[in-house]
Design goal:
single chain, 270 residues, alpha/beta, Rossmann fold, 7-stranded mixed β-sheet, 9 helices, 40% helix
Length: 270
């Protein structure tokens, strides 16, 4: 074989191998002595989430709660993610341990975790919380295209979560609602948000609600607030409180406070 042809073939094989390998990178806020937990921000599919560290709503939220911030920059081949069920969406394949290692490397200890993920980021978040169930304080997975509900007998996180989708995000709406429905069927403390007038894009009004939800969960985790009796509302956004008592469990959302419920009603599309 001609040497040039041989070198060319070897080069192509190396390129193919590199392209097939997952890339698991991170951006983070600096460590300090008051960091007590970390928020992980997971962007859309194969996107560098470093932009989160420049967004004042998220960084202000982290500062007032003494949180470190880690933004994911994960990528895998589309073929693996959509056809082969391989890649960073599945934490057991390496992306989960990579995140835990990064938290310990940056902040010096195994901190508890809050997670927010959009689109491809929601794919990772929704699986990670049950892969590392004892590390989770609270989480939100928004607008994934497909979901995996853990098999029966799996150890599940007890942390509260939000499952969400835009009301105009047709391809992802039914799978997202189905995942929420299964969770509530199993009595998991999840909130469903059908975001009004929203397609497949980030939503400032929704992320504001998510931070309010996280604020409540963090206050209880720190011991600053005692959990009271949940307030329930059905996902139709009904104002008939008496009617809610007879609705099926899968269609009810549990809220820590009336304030959070009222904020939800402002963004929830019936």
């Amino acid at each position: 074989m001609n040497n040039k042809i041989f070198i060319y073939l070897v080069f192509q094989l190396l390129v193919a191998a590199l392209l097939a390998k997952d890339s698991l990178q991170f951006s983070f806020s600096p460590s300090n002595d008051i960091v007590r937990a970390v928020i992980v921000l997971a962007p859309g599919m194969n996107t560098d989430g470093a932009f989160f560290l420049k967004e004042s709503p998220w960084m202000d939220f982290a500062r007032r709660n003494n949180l470190g911030v880690i933004a994911l920059n994960y990528s895998s081949s589309a073929e693996d993610l959509y056809q082969n069920r391989k890649g960073y969406y599945w934490p057991e394949q390496g992306s989960g341990q990579a995140l835990l290692n990064e938290i310990k490397r940056v902040y010096g200890k195994d901190l508890p975790i809050v997670l927010y993920g959009f689109s491809g980021g929601a794919q990772f978040v929704s699986r990670f919380v049950d892969w590392a169930p004892d590390r989770i304080i609270a989480w939100c997975a928004y607008s994934a295209q497909f979901w995996d509900y853990p098999p029966k007998g799996s150890k599940l996180t007890k942390a509260r979560g939000i499952v969400a989708c835009g009301d105009q995000d047709g391809l992802r709406w039914l799978p997202s609602f189905g995942f929420y429905y299964q969770g509530r069927k199993d009595k998991r403390p999840w909130i469903w948000v059908n975001i009004s007038n929203t397609a497949h894009n980030r939503s400032a009004k929704f992320e504001k609600f998510v931070r309010q939800f996280f604020d409540e969960e963090l206050a209880i985790w720190r011991g600053d607030k005692k959990p009271g009796e949940d307030v329930y509302s059905d996902i139709s956004n009904s104002d008939n409180e008496l009617l809610l008592l007879s609705e099926q469990q899968e269609l009810q959302c549990p809220f820590r406070s009336k304030e959070l419920l009222e904020s939800w009603k402002k963004i929830q599309a019936p």
